Amino acid sequence: MDPHYTEWLNLVIRWAHMITGVAWIGASFYFVWLENHLDRRSPREGLAGDLWAIHGGGIYHLEKYKLAPSKMPEKLHWFKWEAYTTWLSGMALLAVVYYLNAQLYLVSPGSGLSSIAAISIGIASLIIGWVIYTGLCESALGKRPALLGAILFLLIIAAAWGLSQVFSGRGAFIHVGAIIGTIMVGNVFFVIMPAQRKMVASLEAGELPDPSLPAKGLLRSRHNNYFTLPILFIMISNHFPSTFAHSYNWAVLAGISILGILVRHYFNTRHLSQKYAWTLPAAALGMISLAFVVAPQRTVSNPAAAVAPAISFSAIQPIIEQRCTVCHSATPSSPLFTAPPGGVMFDSSEQIKQLAARIHAQSVATQAMPLGNMTQMTTAERELIGQWVIEGANIN
After folding, report:
1. Same domain, 112 and 252
2. Of 198-207, 316-325, 368-377, where does the model show the most confidence?
3. Is 276 found in the same domain as 167?
4. What is the per-residue pLDDT across 118-137, written as a single tens digit (0 to 9) for each?
5. Cβ atoms of 182 and 87 closer than 8 Å
6. pLDDT above 90: percentage of residues in the chain
7. Rg of the chain over CA atoms, in angstroms?
8. Domain match, 127 and 245 both
9. Tens-digit pLDDT profile for residues 337-380
10. CA distance 356 to 363
11. Who has the most CB within 10 Å: 35, 37, 111, 368?
12. How many C-beta atoms lie closer than 10 Å to residue 376's C-beta?
């Protein structure tokens, strides 16, 4: 497909994915907030609680029934399409970006894995992830939510480690996100919505609903709520190679996910007390600590090099032209791009000098570029660029 139209297909699907994702996560956050802030002190008969709120110039009065009103309303709003369209657009985006360009974005450079094999592993991981997850939820662990949550977290990080062995860093991260997203939408489609339909049908028939169904739906809904911040990070992680391209990328993902879960827990419980307020400064300190832990080393590897003549720009420029400007040029020669990705260009010495730190981060520190190492940049070339940047990126 023409790269221009591929780019626009990517844009349209990504935009739709973002819009529907915001709607889904926003609804999740709102209903958790609503549940936690109900006034339960002396509710009217039949109610579990109520809430007064003001927004957009209007005052709202919301009521929650213990079970249901004496007569079901003609119009009952269901929240499901936000979840379904988010997952469908996400799968479409996964296919357009990672599966149509598997050797570029998905397969780890030098792994020898074919595109078909990589795509098969990716799809299988989504199916296996859901099967294992739902099996654990339906087991005795379903009655021990804290232990179940800890086991699920460890299994997801184990999946991140395993996928990072065969996929590129960004490919591994996005598939962990896809596993979580599949679990979340599976919870809505297979558990939460059927439970709600059966409850409504029982009420309309004048029967007492099965209490186990709402309990299962509540457990899955809580999981979805705690998954939100880790999956939001994964959605933006491909912009930050110091996370996905780090040699311990799975551990970086684990650390950031833990911090996100802690923050989410504080906002889920702050209506009861402020005993988890420590999670906010802890998360901030954790992010700062991670930034230092994953920081690339910029030391001269050979002590003799400190007094050796500086590496000249004439030694660096041919490497940049051969390995980088294939894509990062005003007129890319790569058939994959019609414009330089991210608007980054290395057509002149001044541009190269200005972006020297970024070149170091992408091609030396994390080795995230070139994409899929499609131009076969060597280790020696990366080290030469790294030394040139350390010495001041001189272009004279």
Report:
1. yes
2. 316-325
3. yes
4. 999 999 999 999 999 999 99
5. yes
6. 66
7. 26
8. yes
9. 888 888 899 999 999 999 998 898 889 988 888 988 889 999 99
10. 10
11. 368
12. 10
Neighbour count for residue 377 (Cβ, 10 Å): 20
Q: What is the mean pLDDT of residues 45-60?
A: 94
Same domain (yes/no): 118, 263: yes
- Out of 233, 268, 293, a domain closes at 293
**Other beta carbons less than 10 A from residue 201's beta carbon:** 11
Q: Which helix (H) or strand (E) holds 235?
A: helix 212-236
Separation of first and last alpha carbons in the chain: 42
Omega of the bond prior to 370 within 30 degrees of 0, cis?
yes
Strands 47-55 and 58-65: antiparallel
Question: 263 is in which domain, residue-wise?
Answer: 81-293
What pLDDT, on the 0 to 100 scale, is given for residue 358?
Answer: 87
Phi, psi of 310 (to 5 degrees): -60, 150
Q: Looking at the 3D structure of the chain, how many domains does it have? A: 2
* Half-sphere exposure in the Cβ direction for 101 (13 Å, CA): 22
The rounded distance, in Å, linking the Cα atoms of 251 and 244 is: 10
